[in-house]
Design a protein that fits this description.
This protein has 117 residues and is an all-alpha fold. The chain has one domain. Helix content is 74%, strand content 0%. The protein has 3 helices and no strands. Helix 1 runs antiparallel to helix 2 and helix 2 packs antiparallel against helix 3. The longest helix has 34 residues. It is elongated.
Amino acid sequence: MSKTKKKSTRIDGGLSEEDLIFEKIIYFSGWIFLLILLVYLGGFFVFDFIFGLIELQLNASNFSVIIFTGTNAAISFALATRIKKNRDQKKKLFVDWLKGEFLFCVIAILVVAAYQW
């Protein structure tokens, strides 16, 4: 057996480094979805309303992108907040989040398909 001790991955508050990285990844995904939404809406606003270069219309695909990115940003921030408050239920919350995201994506695709049909 080795005489060297294993380094603990726990931070002072009793959190492991993996837990903190996990929370940061979820927050980061929320910020990415929010950034995509703001860039999309900003481009829509700048090119259509200000410059008048392109005649953009809010059709089903544009509307679904706006709803999808906005809702996913909100869900990601909500998950990160719930995990921060209930760290002992992290795995259960994450699995529920994955199932919810899957159902949300399937429903969004079916709604857009039904609207286009």
